[in-house]
Design goal:
This protein is α+β, with helices and mostly antiparallel strands. It has one domain. The protein is built from three helices and two strands. The chain has a two-stranded antiparallel ribbon with strand order 1-2. Strand 1 and strand 2 form a beta hairpin. The termini are far apart.
Length: 87
């Protein structure tokens, strides 16, 4: 089955796949990357709530999204400047 990726990098999971994974409006998916393949595992709403914050211990500290985006834009600008690209 094919699904387009939006400008924001979002994909709508087709209904037959959501039904097969047993996920509804409250559920989610886990993305498993194995040997250059991505596999989706359905997570029901209750399980998704249990996973919330489970990666917190791996995060060094909280950073506001605005700050992250600003840093990314700066890095992209630095890379372009280093390549000497001009109009």
């Amino acid at each position: 089955m094919y699904a387009r990726i939006s400008r924001k990098g979002q994909v709508t999971i087709p209904k037959p796949i959501r039904e097969k994974l047993n996920i509804g409006n409250e559920g989610g998916v886990l993305f498993l990357v194995e040997d250059n393949e991505i596999k989706l595992k359905g997570v029901t709403g209750v399980q998704a709530d249990l996973l919330a914050g489970s990666l917190k211990k791996y995060a060094k500290k909280y950073a506001p999204l605005k700050k992250i985006r600003k840093k990314i834009r700066g890095k992209i600008a630095d890379e372009i400047a280093a390549e000497g690209i001009s109009d």
